[in-house]
UniProtKB/TrEMBL annotation:
PANTHER family noted in UniProt: PURINE PERMEASE C1399.01C-RELATED (PTHR42810:SF2)
Family: Belongs to the nucleobase:cation symporter-2 (NCS2) (TC 2.A.40) family.
Protein name per the record: NCS2 family nucleobase:cation symporter
Keywords: Membrane, Transmembrane, Transmembrane helix, Transport
The organism of origin for this protein: Exiguobacterium acetylicum (Brevibacterium acetylicum)
Pfam families: Xan_ur_permease (PF00860)
Transmembrane residue ranges: 20-41, 94-112, 119-138, 158-178, 185-204, 224-247, 308-329, 341-361, 373-390, 396-414
Entry keyword Transmembrane helix: yes
Claim: Membrane is one of the keywords in the record: yes
């Protein structure tokens, strides 16, 4: 793998404290919008999410022996199941689901360490993962539209919709026309302009900011201290299967990181360590009361632009995120962001998630004219978006979880054509790399 010319290599330390601070702040800005959006949508605490992302990143860096410059922020994949579980059984059961998802990562890490990863890649091919990712985004579409155009009374509000469209429009313009470092933070641009417009038309309640203090302890929701955890199989079945999708995303993100820094992280320190670090970070984040975290492509973008790959810079960003979590004015300000602003952003972000699923299919050259591929994709999309459910007594498997399981089963039992078998053989490069552990 050809090594890119680095301004700061993976284990190099910035020479000047001010330079170090500015380099780390860039990563904070890149992850901030998406990281705080997830708790805003799911009802979790934004300050806790910031602390959880920082702690999760430090854990990941330590587990990977400070060889993988990666930042971990709130995962969008868990938004829909967290909302569903919280509405039915309470946020505590959703947090338990996040912890168990992290433990599943730990189990997968052990299996990869001793058996290789070819089994994982065969279990979750693009024809399964692509449609599941589309389900994640499309199932959230009603939430985004409702936030964008409906008031607190649930009725259409033209002023809200105007603010949402301005927010969306500015974000799209920023994504399209901004270059360099600025191109990595279009969400922040959109939220900023949308916030100013919302303030000008008088739909912002500034009370949370007025009541905020400079320093505060985030409202952590910790098991056995804040609540007594309980085992809710139905809730776990809604959240834990998302792990199958995020594992695949993890592998993809690590391959991108490898290309940027010029060395194969899936070989050194190894996929078992990157998966383990991600898993422990997920469990700890949920134990604190935040959403599960995941590796962030936004921060990969920052590294690609700046050619600064230092884990010390990423660690500095993590420390800054933790510090921001204890600043009362940061949380107070975030709470004043009006719903239509977040709705405008959500229309784009949830659509991007669905589009990434389609991109997975196209980049993997999945031929939907083939009956086998068409069948798997169709079943996953309809059962996942339609909310199909399998209920036996107190046991319930529904929505995205059911769609994922059905997709895996169909992929295993439906016969492949000769051409598909040959394509599988040709695209086994990642499997070969994974089996070198």
């Amino acid at each position: 793998m050809a090594k890119h010319a680095a301004v700061l290599d993976v284990q190099e330390v910035p020479t000047h404290p001010l330079n170090w601070l500015m380099l780390s702040l860039q990563h904070v800005f890149a992850m901030f919008g998406a990281t705080v959006l997830v708790p805003l949508l799911t009802g979790l605490n934004t300050s806790v999410a910031l602390v959880a992302s920082g702690v999760g990143t430090l854990i990941f860096l330590a587990v990977t022996r400070f060889k993988v410059p990666t930042y971990l922020g709130s995962s969008f994949a868990y938004i829909a199941p967290i909302i569903a579980v919280s509405e039915r059984w309470g946020v505590e059961d959703a947090l338990i689901g996040g912890m168990v998802a992290g433990l599943v990562y730990g189990l997968v890490s052990l299996l990869i360490r001793y058996t290789g990863a070819a089994w994982l890649l065969r279990l979750l091919p693009p024809v399964v993962i692509g449609p599941v990712i589309m389900v994640i985004g499309l199932s959230l579409a009603p939430t985004a539209v409702n936030m964008a155009m409906n008031g607190a009374d649930g009725k259409y509000n033209g002023l809200y919709f105007l603010v949402a469209m301005v927010t969306l429009g500015v974000t799209l313009l920023a994504m399209t026309y901004l270059k360099g470092m600025w191109s990595t933070i279009p969400i922040l641009f959109g939220i900023t302009v949308g916030y100013l417009v919302a303030a000008s038309v008088g739909i912002i309640d500034f009370t949370p900011l007025q009541q905020a203090t400079f320093f505060h302890v985030p409202d952590f929701t910790i098991p056995f201290l804040s609540y007594t955890p309980s085992w809710n199989t139905a809730a776990l079945l809604l959240i834990v299967p998302v792990t199958l999708v995020t594992l695949t995303e993890h592998i993809g993100e690590q391959k991108v990181t490898s290309r940027i820094i010029g060395r194969e992280t899936l070989l050194d320190p190894g996929m078992h360590r990157t998966v383990l670090g991600d898993g422990i970070a997920k469990t700890v984040a949920s134990m604190l009361g935040g959403p599960p975290v995941t590796t962030y492509g936004e921060n990969n973008g920052v590294m690609s632009i700046t050619r600064v790959y230092s884990v010390f810079v990423l660690g500095g960003a993590a420390v800054l995120a933790i510090s921001f979590g204890f600043l009362g004015y940061v949380e107070g300000f975030i709470k004043t962001i009006p719903t239509p602003v977040m709705g405008g952003i959500s229309i784009l972000l949830f659509g991007v998630i669905a589009s990434n699923g389609l991109r997975t299919l196209t980049e993997s050259k999945i031929d939907l004219a083939d009956k086998r591929n068409l069948t798997i994709t169709a079943v996953i999309l309809v059962t996942g978006i339609g909310g199909a459910a399998l209920k036996i007594g107190n046991f319930s498997l529904e929505g995205m979880a059911l769609a994922t399981i059905l997709g895996i089963i169909l992929n295993l039992v439906l016969p492949k054509t000769t051409e598909q078998v040959e394509e599988t053989t040709e695209t086994s490069t990642t499997q070969s790399v994974a089996n070198n552990f």
